[in-house]
Design goal:
The structure is a homodimer of 223-residue chains. Chain A is mainly alpha-helical. Chain A is built from 9 helices and 3 strands. In chain A, strands 1-3-2 form a 3-stranded antiparallel β-sheet. In chain A, a hairpin with a 5-residue loop joins β2 and β3. The longest helix of chain A is centred in the middle third of the chain and has 25 residues. Chains A and B meet through α3, α4 and α7 of A and α3, α4 and α7 of B. Chain A binds a DNA duplex (30 and 30 nucleotides) through α2 and α3.
DNA sequence: CAAAATTAAATTTGATCATATTATCTGATT
DNA sequence: AATCAGATAATATGATCAAATTTAATTTTG
């Protein structure tokens, strides 16, 4: 029965496999399917009320992006981070995100800064109220909106892949250290950007990354 | 008719969607399906003698990796490189590959160097005899083997994605400038690595990248 | 005799295909 | 130019088959 995941209302031409992909992506990215947890086709068919083909395709896509990994025999899981992984992610983020910020700084308009400040305010609210879901989503959205400004599709694709790797672990981090201990350099980043100071903005985002990675490391040590 | 792409001979447990993926990946990576060309499900079913579901899954995977792109309506193509793309690829390769080489240098064993020299010799033969197919494959294999040594799965995944972006254009480059004008820094890279000089090896690979990108740029200008 | 190991049946899940449905494109007609 | 079949190709379903995991039963062994 029920609203099978398709275009019932009208001719939204977005196909089911795309919807399933987006749904599953969010489940993973925001830790609703926890790292280490296995994902089954059948389970997703029921959970997402979708058909088999769209679910399969979504799983293939997310596997290709590293958000899911094959566990030898036919088992698929959300991967957990190893020390090695964290080290690689640290390197990659520090190499790519400052570049994106520098590019974004050259193109940013004042209304973009407005948007970003608005998102950052929501983020602060989420932190104050301890709303982990809202925090994770707004934090992702902040960075995503920022990087979109750089108009660099390949860099963007790669950064998305990195998010899919460490994003799932952020929920665990929040649970461990509490939202109130989450700090960021978003305001400094935005100030530097609205001054057109690409170097300072890049430095700010580097500091933001360092803090984030340190939180993950700290959380991993106490597990 | 006949040998449908599956495990007829014996219980090779590798599923059809995996085989189709590997086949299609090679077709794209080595320019046998040229950049700009459209890819249809039906066409691949016939060309690869496979079923529909495996073909769909392979296309999704390669789309996620950036080797194929959706063209709005239900059309899928092998993307062509824009100037912007080349610039991003240049940045990313220069950021990542020297790092991989430096890591590989720390772990490399003398028999690995042997293997790499062997591949490089085959590569030279391909250049001398003007065998573009062999050149493309050996060149890919050389880098792939090198980076495997670093034991850095995420960096490796990202570099694979970059290869899938510029690899398809290399055939066009070869056609334009001829294999004899293809130069590389492979010998210098290997010498530095076998000396354990990570810095020099990284520099060599950076020079290799610069040459490769310049060749692509040169080829693009004359198109 | 009980604990561990092995094997065998049962159940679950994945892989693939044939088929049905739906969207897009074509070009002929108005 | 706009509209409307017909053709083509993509999307999506459910059925079927095969593989793997789990559970139960059996045997082995200390």
């Amino acid at each position: 029965m029920g609203s099978r995941m398709k275009n019932e209302i009208s001719h939204l031409k977005v196909p089911a496999h795309e919807l399933v992909y987006q749904n599953l992506r969010e489940l993973i990215l925001f830790g609703e399917i926890a790292p280490g947890q296995t994902v089954t086709i059948k389970g997703l068919i029921e959970q997402l009320n979708a058909g088999m083909t769209p679910v399969r395709e979504a799983i293939r896509r997310l596997s290709a992006e590293g958000a899911l990994t094959f566990q030898g025999n036919r088992r698929v899981i959300v991967p957990t981070l190893s020390e090695q992984n964290v080290s690689e992610l640290n390197f990659l983020r520090r190499a790519l995100e400052p570049k994106l910020i520098a590019m974004a700084t050259k193109r940013v308009k004042s209304e973009d800064i407005e948007d970003l400040r608005r998102i950052d305010r929501e983020l602060d609210n989420a932190i104050k109220s301890g709303d982990i879901n809202a925090y994770l989503r707004q934090n992702y959205w902040f960075h995503k909106t920022l990087y979109k400004l750089a108009e660099a599709p390949i860099l963007d694709q790669v950064v998305d892949i990195l998010w899919l790797r460490y994003g799932p672990s952020l929920r665990v981090v929040c649970g461990r250290i509490g939202t109130l201990n989450l700090t960021d350099q978003h305001k400094e980043t935005l100030n530097a950007m609205s001054d057109g100071d690409a170097q300072r903005a890049a430095d700010a985002i580097r500091a933001d990354i360092t803090q984030g990675i340190d939180q993950i490391k700290y959380s991993m040590r106490n597990s």
